[in-house]
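Hi W.,

Here's what went into the run:
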Amino acid sequence: MSALNIVVCVKQVPDSWAEKKLDPADNTLDRDAADAVVNELDEYGVEEALQIQERLGGPESVTVTVLTMGPEKATESIRKALSMGADAAVHVQDAALHGTDAIGTSLVLSKAIERLAPDIVIFGSESTDARMSVVPAMVAERLGRPQLTFAGKVEVEGALVRIQRVTDYGYDTVEASTPVVVSVVEKTNEPRYPSFKGIMAAKKKPVETLGLADLGVSPDEVGIAGAWSSVTSFAARPPRQAGTIVKDEGDGGVKLAEFLASQKFI
Amino acid sequence: MAEVLVLVDHADGDVKKVTYELLTLAARLGEPAAVFVGSGADQAIAGLAEYGATKVYVADVADASDYVTTPLVSALAAAVAVASPAAVLIPSNADGKEAAARLAVRIGSGLITDAVDVTADGGIGAEQSVFGGATIVASAVTHGTPIITVRPNSTPPVVQSAAATRVDLTVELGDADRTARITERVAEERTGRPELTEAAIVVSGGRGVGSPEGFAVVEALADSLGAAVGASRAATDAGWYPHQFQVGQTGKTVSPQLYLANGISGAIQHRAGMQTSKTIVAVNKDSEAPIFELVDFGVVGDLHQVLPQLTDEVKKRKG
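Here's what came out:
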């Protein structure tokens, strides 16, 4: 048993640089319409966990476990995180989970976290598909753990965790005692690329697969039917009317000023 | 008519504009009632009345600002218990979204975040702009009291005087509310510019700005227009401009009256944060840059030439 256990939550999302679509059949995200990748901000979460591990004495003293909820395909994201250096993984996978909202997701993750009982849970501060930034706060609420979210910097000193919470004006220093829930922004670190050695090692690392029954969650608490909000309709935004484009011939600033004046901005 | 609660966004009683926008939207759904947490309520009430608050629930928790989110959640839960509201509207910023998230779990209600509009026909619903603004989604809460976070600048605030009767709430912070303690607030730079998400005009710079020093021309233009300054991820990742000013996916979402994108190509990462701006203007050297597909007016040229000329022209016209 390590002195410190860290769980990093990782979500698989459609490539954040690709155009995303909703599936008209059930108004959920069409996950086949774009390549699936690890949510970019979750890579920062994995990196932060690995850096804490390195600072505090390596795998002998700190264990990093990856936790993901998603279809079988999400195994790819688990492999990526393990290739970066995480020690083990837990994959919550269940047919009933399709269409689960943030409330249901926070329930499932909380149950899995309770089972793993880590000192520190780390999330990316937002997923690039849903962009709600609410699951870390919901998990903190459910587990009654201190919420150290939107961290631009994380420090661990014994049982004390201190972060810089990014604000509109700079940052707030926030601290709490473990066990805690942390979320990180991309300012925190620079995620490493998996090395060849890391990729090979990842193949041998343990991945535990759990279903809803293992977590004591009923199928009617999750999925589309268990969601507490629903998409009633959706439509593509009407394209913007083509604007006026001019080439700067030494008077670009003046022309722009004329446009702004015509729109009463100046 | 049932009350619709609005969480007041304020700093020691200095109320932010988004609160008035939310009161304006609340009036469409029911009777607007404000929830004020912390100190400074006396200073805030007149303004809340002016924008239609029939009641102001006050949770004057002395150390509310010392803890992350939890005092807001406890106060909102207490107000919900007293008012049995038709809905709860909360500003869609970091604190607001997290308070809404915890409230949803605590009172067992559905949550919609980042709404750009709310509707009352056939039950309370919300409109969201997703996938970089490319798709408009209509959503509804199907369980409990609808909790909706609304983006700043979603609607112009409308003056509609109301009584704003003060109702004091008894909110005791428990040990669980006092776990994540704020020990220090650090203001990295007080620029005197409006806040990015609330500003009517945003002037942004990207890769084309070229260097940290290059942002001087962006800032000069912003100051001539009374605008906020934003930056693309390329510029913040390069360390040219502080992270908290990043506009786009993984950064801030803005929806100003006027957005000026300078040296920004307009990849989806950036569009996700600004596509709902009312009027969009761009300056870019590359005539093929995707940002030009969004603009009302674009200049193909070097921003280091165009912006100083524009700044001079703005100053001249403003006299």
